[in-house]
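Supplementary Methods, section 5.1.

A reviewer requested that the exact input to the structure prediction be made available. We therefore reproduce it here, unchanged from the version used in the analyses.
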Amino acid sequence: MSKKIKNVCNGQFGHLYLNGVEVFMVQSFSAELKMDLEELKANGSWEKGFKLKDISLEGKFKVKYVDSMGLKDMVAMMKKGITPTFKITSSLEDPEQFHGQIEQIYIGEAFIEKLPLADWEINKMVEKEFSFKANPQSLNILKEILDEDGIKVA
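The structure derived from this sequence is encoded token-by-token as follows.
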């Protein structure tokens, strides 16, 4: 197995899709699966271990502001007590990856947690950062990047 520096993924080749529509001018995207672990001690021993209690999924993305991205519709839904949900697909497609492999992550049920309304300064390009929470059961790894021999690296 010969890993090469050129195979390091470059975020320049990342794409973000909300409900199947590509988001223009994405500057960053992150999604994180968090594990809530409880520390457990064995009786009569110094041994400690951990047991999974719960999982959560959350993330954020930042865009150079180009359009309102359904702002009016989302605000109207929230005013009616409706929780806006959306589907997320993150795709990292660096052309220097082994055999052109792509990493794709799909989140089938995400909820806007923070909806930026207005935030700008003179002589600065406007950026907006959105945060979300998601149903961990809706997470699917569609494609993953393996090493050059097609082996999953743990």
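Strands lie at 14-18, 21-22, 26-41, 48-64, 85-92, 103-114, 127-134, 139-143. These observations are discussed further in the main text.
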